[in-house]
Amino acid sequence: MDAGRPHKTRIRVINPNTTEAMTETIADAARRVASPMTEISAATSKSGAASIEGHYDEAISVIGLIEAIRDHPDADAYVIACFGDPGLLAAREFTTAPVLGIAEAAMHAASFIATGFSIVTTLERTQIIAEHLVRNYGMTQHCRRVRAVGIPVLELEDPTSTARSRILAECEKAVAEDSSGAIVLGCAGMADLTRYLEDQLQIPVIDGVAAAVKFAEALVGLGLRTSKRGDLAFPLPKTYRGITAAYAPR
Predict the structure, then answer these.
(1) Stretch 18-45: mean pLDDT, rounded?
(2) Has residue 220 got a pLDDT over 90?
(3) With 70 as the cut, is the pLDDT of residue 1 above it?
(4) How far is Cα 121 from Cα 84, in angstroms, rounded to an integer?
(5) DSSP string for residues in 89-117
(6) Strand partners for 183
């Protein structure tokens, strides 16, 4: 690299499930908003479930997430592209680079531009997980309601599905019934719907992938790193056994 040439910001966007088509949707959303001096690389988890739709799926996905970070330690920031933000704090322990979850990023973005927002997600069980995140992130005063459309995550990748119209219908209910000024999309697989939904609803629609990428750029630009004091210090070296042996901290 030439000494006078500015350094590109390298953001690694990680899909913690194993569905390549969803990674492509996520990567497109990230690249659409990234600045010219940002390089987006997208990763599909090498292990775990085809879709993440519950606590069990999230727990199993963390190994693949950590592996995706470990395999690219030179990234300036990482984005976890699943609305459950699985393994977020574990990932922050693992690296000094900023790590952003798309749910946390989307809720903060929505709170900047509206006094109240609704989250529209896929299934009832992910609705409950999103409600937990609302409380954990201190967003109860901003989030008016979490709504479930009742569609499996992988249906978002099916061009013959009615998912798009059903998501729009639920968003319209959120505007009418929740008095929300913005919509947060509660699944990374919805990342390609923002413009369509905004055109129909005439209110801001926030995709967490895009929000996380822009926040990551800002943190890197500010020179901020993940604190290594307290609970986000590097994991303590110790012996791991079984299938986790290769992930033992050193």
Answers:
(1) 97
(2) yes
(3) no
(4) 11
(5) HHHHHH-SS-EEEHHHHHHHHHHHH-S-E
(6) 118, 205
